[in-house]
Amino acid sequence: MDPLSYWQAIILGIVEGLTEFLPVSSTGHLTIASKLLGLQVNDPGVTAYTAVIQIGAIAATFLYFGKKILRLFLAWIGGLSDSAKRGHDYQLAWAVIVGSLPVGVVGFVLKDLISGPLRSLWVVAAALVLWSGVIWWAERRHDDLEAQGVQRGEGDVTIKDGLIIGLVQCFSLIPGVSRSGATISAGIARGINRVVATELSFFLAIPALTAAGVFEAVGEKEHILALGVPQMAVGILVSFVVAYASIAWLLKFVSTNSLRPFISYRVLLGAALVVALAAGWMSAT
């Protein structure tokens, strides 16, 4: 495969940074963007490249939440050696750890399916629309729980919450579902307030995206090199800058808004994609 051009790398970096943490599916958008850029969406190199540039989004998460991540890590280390130090931060750290395991196992077992047959724009279109129903249901449940006075904060997040949210995160391996859409929906459906659920989604992203990026970088090294190392560096840098801004914006947004505007966007995009595919304006792979 020919190397990416720098403008292709920049566009993919922007798309990754914008959509990684919004509940609209970064994989789905990257698949669409890759197709519009003339790339073969199920090519191993393209699949690996879109996973590797997530490193920029991971770095943005570390920078934005650096102090909090360090606090949770120290609380976890301290709690392992001293039961008297096992407070809310220790429990939250375990929730993140436990919640990160399912997607790693499922992703490894179903790697060939995820990077192959599921890399179809028909799958993306279906997942965009169908998972919108899940987000809608989660918002309805959140509203019902809020009316009952059930709103849990950061100190109320349990290991069970982490496990359930982590299991739901596995659905995000389907392009078009959205990792953040899955995890935030699961969080608010369990009565966790939107800001905390969103932050928890960011923390769960770190091991998931790191593992995916490293695994693809090692396993598909030759294909990635063919696309161009400088282009990959540009994509990572652009995704870092855009993702940092996206994190700040989303946290501010969910503090006063629901996820419903994203539902409308997802359904419209999914419908437009179905029309484009059915009319033959785009091919599915």
Describe this structure in words.
The chain is an all-alpha fold. The protein contains 14 helices and no strands. Helix 3 packs across helix 11, helix 8 runs parallel beside helix 10 and helix 11 packs antiparallel against helix 13. It is globular and about 60 Å long. The model has no long low-confidence stretch (mean pLDDT 90).
Describe, in short, the structure shown.
By secondary structure, the chain is mainly α. The protein has helices spanning 6-19, 26-36, 44-52, 54-64, 66-81, 88-109, 111-115, 121-147, 159-169, 179-189, 194-219, 221-227, 229-254, 260-278.
Task: Give me the secondary-structure topology.
Blueprint: H1 6-19, H2 26-36, H3 44-52, H4 54-64, H5 66-81, H6 88-109, H7 111-115, H8 121-147, H9 159-169, H10 179-189, H11 194-219, H12 221-227, H13 229-254, H14 260-278
Helix pairs in contact: 1-2, 1-13, 3-11, 3-12, 4-11, 4-13, 5-6, 6-9, 6-11, 8-10, 8-14, 9-10, 10-11, 11-13
Number of strands: 0
Annotation field: number of helices: 14
Low-confidence stretches: none
Helix/strand class: mainly alpha
Shape, per Cα inertia axes:
globular
Q: Please summarize the sheet with the most strands.
A: none
Jot down its keywords.
mainly alpha
